[in-house]
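Hey team,

Filing this mostly as a record. A colleague (T.K.) asked me to run one chain through the structure pipeline before their review meeting, and I want the input and output archived in the tracker in case anyone asks later how it was produced. No errors, nothing strange. Just documentation.

Input sequence:
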Amino acid sequence: MKKLMILPALFLASPAVAHPGLHIAPHGAEWMPVFMGLAVIGTAAAVALRARIKAKAAARK
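Output structure:
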């Protein structure tokens, strides 16, 4: 899960990389782990749903 979060975290945390002491999350961003976790869970659910729909369509043929 950490690997999936690194790129979006760096995009959202650009001010945090501007000073020494590199941080993934900017200061005062307690919402970030929750948001990123929900984003990963939502993406995984969408991928699973799409695969399930494709499997049902393939089974009909």
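Quick notes for T.K.: The two ends are 36 Å apart (CA to CA). The chain is about 65% helix and 0% strand.
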